[in-house]
């Protein structure tokens, strides 16, 4: 392949990604505004004088994002491989990888996103951490930046 074919291929990939990314971008402002915040309230389980199990109640916007993101091709069932391959141990490692990602590392972005979206289905603290640690915002922002590099600016 020559560089013209490579560029055309990357542009086509960016256009494919863009179709699924556009609906998710409407959540960027929500995540940006809530960085460092806890998007949950706790139900303390005290009802009618009886104590029951305490559990988190998630913000409806966050739940809508999770539902929408989980229906995209960005969900990677082998996301744990991304974590072991890149030796990702914490949110700081994730942020570093997100920051330096290009279109060739799109799978890394998808792996991190999947960890938080699908992992949160069984470990709910991941949804909270995705907001508090700014991971959801950074991933969406980086995906937008990559698509815009290969296509054109996205007007929101």
Instruction: Note the gap between the termini.
Output: 35 Å
Rg calc? 17 Å
Give the overall shape, derived from the CA principal axes.
elongated
Q: Report the count of strand segments.
A: 4
Reading the helices and strands in chain order gives: HHEEEEHHHHHH
Mean pLDDT: 90
Q: Give the strand order, joined by hyphens, for the main sheet.
A: 1-4
Task: Describe the protein in words.
The chain has eight helices and four strands. The chain is mostly helical and 156 residues long. Helix content is 60%, strand content 8%. The termini are far apart.
Put the structure in a nutshell.
With 156 residues, the chain is mainly alpha-helical. The chain has helices at 3-25, 28-33, 60-70, 79-85, 91-100, 106-117, 125-132, 135-150, and strands spanning 40-43, 46-47, 50-51, 55-58. Strand 2 and strand 3 (50-51) form a beta hairpin.
């Amino acid at each position: 392949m020559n560089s013209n074919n490579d560029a055309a291929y990357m542009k086509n990939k960016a256009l494919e990604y863009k179709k699924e990314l556009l609906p998710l971008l409407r959540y960027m402002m929500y995540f940006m505004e809530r960085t460092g915040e806890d998007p949950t309230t706790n139900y303390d389980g005290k009802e009618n004088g009886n104590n029951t199990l305490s559990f988190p109640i998630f913000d409806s916007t966050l739940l809508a994002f999770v539902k929408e993101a989980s229906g995209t091709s960005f969900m990677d069932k082998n996301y744990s491989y991304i974590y072991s391959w890149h030796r990702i141990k914490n949110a700081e490692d994730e942020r570093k990888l997100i920051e330096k990602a290009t279109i060739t590392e799109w799978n890394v972005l998808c792996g991190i996103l999947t960890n938080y979206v699908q992992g949160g289905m069984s470990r709910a603290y991941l949804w909270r951490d995705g907001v508090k640690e700014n991971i959801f915002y950074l991933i969406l922002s980086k995906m937008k930046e990559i698509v815009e590099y290969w296509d054109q600016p996205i007007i929101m």
